[in-house]
Amino acid sequence: MTTSLSLLTPSGRLTLGNLLGALRPMAARLDDPGSRAYYGLSDLHAMTTPHDPALLRARTTEMATLLLAAGLERATLFRQSRVPAHAELAYLLECTTHTGELARMIQFKEKGRGVGSTRVSLYTYPVLMAADILLYRPAVVPVGDDQRQHVELTRDLALRFNTTYGEVFTVPEVATPAAGARVMDLADPTRKMSKSADAAGSVFLLDGPDVVRRKVARAVTDSDTGPDAVRADRAAKPGVTNLLEVLEACGGSASGIATYGALKAAVTDAVVAQLEPLQRRYAELAADPAYVTEVYDRGAETCRHVTEPVLAAARAAMGL
Ligand code: TYM
Fold first, then answer.
1. What pTM value is reported for the model?
2. What range defines the domain where residue 103 resides?
3. Which whole number is the average pLDDT over 152-174?
């Protein structure tokens, strides 16, 4: 029995990066008959930067529906804020984490840069993420490349806890997909595609075919017109490399493609083919919000049961 766990933060609209880096590999794990999966929405993580409550609610609903539409129905689906053990274990783990470890986190440095006042939760966020993971004792955490450092910190915290207070946690492995682990922004291929970025460089999962076509057509490439212009080279040709990787991750092939125009047409077709069935299923599910709510409520109930003994073991080990 292999248990996997992963969450997504409803801080914006899900992108092609989230699909290729996380949702598709997460869904693939459900095909293994011996697998068990806890997948959820890290809504507490969506409050680490200034947020609007009504918008958070709307994005949570949209994302909950999209996870179902992406084929995660067979997992236990839940909202982090509905499982109180997450916040409580996060505090216990804060008592084992050093400030220097959190100050080193790349995402903290990036999101906190240039911001006059930073929320404390942005700094402590990786500890809450460690709690999300360790409560379920998963063997594997399927994520995109940008979350690798956070899962590595989780491993360090689990090992430290087990050594200091007794064996409570499983030390998880991180799993990133071979292609699509770091989908880059189409308008600026030196930064990753993100939910909160401006719309031009991010393909959102609910973008229609015409919007996808326009965004891919405008994707930044380079001025190389040589016979081997269409080739992967992350350092010298980041835009072209990104398009090739998206094509591969969507099951397409670049063989025989010699121009950027042809490459972009192939990428558009491959991406639209991925998004169409997902959008059809989304429309059906969005018409039945009570069903979506019920799935997540049932999942949270299961999670409260699963996490209770692990939290109790951690409390007891620490002397509480
Ligand atoms: P989040 O919401 O930023 O991203 C959700 C998942 O999508 C992956 N991802 C990408 N993959 C490829 N290319 C991209 N451009 C791209 N952008 C995002 C992320 O790596 C992630 O797998 N802190 C996490 C959520 C979280 C979590 C957890 C994950 C909270 N608790 C416990 C795993 C385990 C986050 O904000 O991901």
1. 0.96
2. 2-181+289-317
3. 98
